[in-house]
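Sorry, explain these tokens?

___
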Amino acid sequence: MANKTATVSKGLLQLVTDLCKVIMEKGIIPWRKTWQSSGRGGPVRENGKDYRGVNRYLLAMQGAMCGFISQMWIGKKTALKQGAIEVNGPGSVIFCPSGWITTKDATTGEETRRPTKWIARKVWNVESIVWTAGSEGSLKLEEETTVVPVAEADLAAHPLMRKVLNHYFDVPTAPRLAHGGNQAYYSPPKDHVQVPNEGDFDGPSAYLVTLAHEVAHSTGHKDRLARKGITDSDGFGKDQYAFEELVAEFTSCELAMRTGITDTRENTKAYLLCWVSRLENNPEWLGKAAAAAQVSADYIMKGFEE
């Protein structure tokens, strides 16, 4: 069966791109907070499962813009079944698959199931819903109740990110890691990750998310995930290069969310804003970059156990 790519209407793609641009221009970085709750991770469904792909970033941005503490987002029908009285407030658009196709690799025989089309639906943060007395308890609205000061949160969260990155490098086929100098980069020909010494950064978070960004690039190596932005880069500032930068930055942010680091580097907003013009011309990039970042983060954490 021929391979097909899932389609999303240009209107929906432009809506998402415009939302991201507005939020970033307002200075809101959804994965950066001045507080840290006791849990970690990103937006979740009512059953506790993570939202993935571009939906994860859309909900994180909407939640940050509205000041929600809860990470739980729910559809209107489900909310009403759970005892909601009123579902209003600032909801968020997410993408959902509509129709599936199964493709089979001619060489390995492996089957892959992919969506053929995406549609938009709306979900609401549980904090914006009016509930009947006691009904919200079934959704565990207070799944993260302990608020930790930022300084303490950093100390609590950093070991997990370090363990994840150490796990990635602790295999014979891992790229080489070196510290020193004043540049952070990944060299595909040498399969080499280089970052300045940790003490040269503004703080532990800045060091770790920068390292995670370069590690994300290394997952695109031909012997790993073989992303074109790494295997066949078209040079600084061009399309493949720009797309790869989005993938790496989203991967870094994804790892930060998964490991509980929320005080990420100050220039994230400016970094992403410099590629907004590319998103305007290529609105489909956002969803594709977010999906690629999920795969990259999963690859980095493959086999990791706390």
About this structure: Confidence is low (pLDDT under 50) at residues 1-8, 30-40, 141-157. Residues 1-148 form one domain.
